[in-house]
Lysine ketoglutarate reductase trans-splicing related 1 (Setaria viridis), 401 residues
Amino acid sequence: MAKPGILGRSSSVPRSNESMRIIFSAVVGVMLGYLFGISFPTVNITKLHFPSSIISYIEDRNSGITTQTLLNHAWTSAASHKNNSVSNPDEIPKIYVPTNPKGAERLPPGIVASETDLYLRRLWGEPSEDLTSQPRYLVTFTVGYSQKANIDAAVKKFSENFTIMLFHYDGRTTEWNEFEWSKRAIHVSVRKQTKWWYAKRFLHPDVVARYDYIFIWDEDLGVEHFNAEAYIKLVRKHGLEISQPGLEPDKGLTWQMTKRRGDQEVHKVTEERPGWCTDPHLPPCAAFVEIMATVFSRDAWRCVWHMIQNDLVHGWGLDFALRKCVEPAHEKIGVVDSQWIVHQVIPSLGNQGKAENGKAPWEGVRARCRKEWGIFQTRLADAEKAYYLDHGITPPNLTGA
Ligand SMILES: *[C@@H]1O[C@H](CO)[C@@H](O)[C@H](O)[C@H]1NC(C)=O
Ligand SMILES: *[C@@H]1O[C@H](CO)[C@@H](O)[C@H](O)[C@H]1NC(C)=O
Ligand SMILES: *[C@@H]1O[C@H](CO)[C@@H](O)[C@H](O)[C@H]1NC(C)=O
């Protein structure tokens, strides 16, 4: 009656519906698959909510990772969650490399890039063909725009073998584009900071690891009698790990050591005023250069960078402590006489201070410099004392220097 009819209908109509549905879904599936396939390469994959493993698969598909290894990996990690004590013969062994940089032990050493450089690259083409040159020396100047003529003259004394880096303390950077060299320079702009503040933050030894020598210079240096390539030749020849060019005697001279001598290539020791040196091999008679135009070898800089304190931004006292970083210091620290500079003593960053209590801005800066010097000396002496005590050694009577 009604039932068989219904059954009859339901046994025939649904069947055709079903096959229709199968065909329909097959067509839709194929279309979707096709659309998906053709649209996939142009879709921004980060906007698709895939599991990250798939995204990384897609991003890394040129690196030889296959779906199969991904699946294997997913399977073994799932299996190891279920039963830790089973050692699955197919399991991918864990990577742990104690000699990797701290914190990166889980990476295969072949992928670890622990150092970088300041070389400029292109946005296109073969990465391996990006670099037309790889400078082995770095020079940094801490600058304000008002010193542009001086800096332009100084930069021209550094060949194309130098990476040029400017730290701008006055926030003006685009103005420097009037100089052709500015386009290949690295510009770092942070207002009202000091040379050592920038150096600590932007010249980490692993960042500047490609450079044999690093010049960390002030902006008020006269370079008429200076040539950087010739300077480096002398520094290599005389084994100077930390150095500076001799200073034109009549200007800005605090110490005998940094005074230029006309009759030689370099000098490493000097006479000072009576009573100034407790030991002829110690600062300020030897093992000593100032911090206005310092040049570091890669190894010396790695040590000095670690000694620079984050809060002591003026670097006062650092000159007396540089000797801690090289051994023997009185042979590896010195002044290059035949490539020399003039310290012009132009007040610059000092004027960026703050007028307080009726005192000029530079006075507050100067007071801070002296205070920092004291703090640094105390910290260094305390650190050495702590080390000796930790090691059961009676601390030697260390002089302030
Ligand atoms: C894990 O495997 C071990 C050894 O095959 C077995 O004795 C143990 O019961 C397993 N544990 C679980 C949670 O399956
Ligand atoms: C740059 O370095 C290369 C290799 O050391 C040297 O041959 C070349 O003379 C240097 N350029 C200048 C201008 O000194
Ligand atoms: C170290 O200094 C103290 C006090 O300044 C002095 O009494 C002591 O003799 C000195 N020791 C040495 C080994 O010079």
In short: The longest helix spans residues 2-39. Confidence is low (pLDDT under 50) at residues 1-14, 32-48.
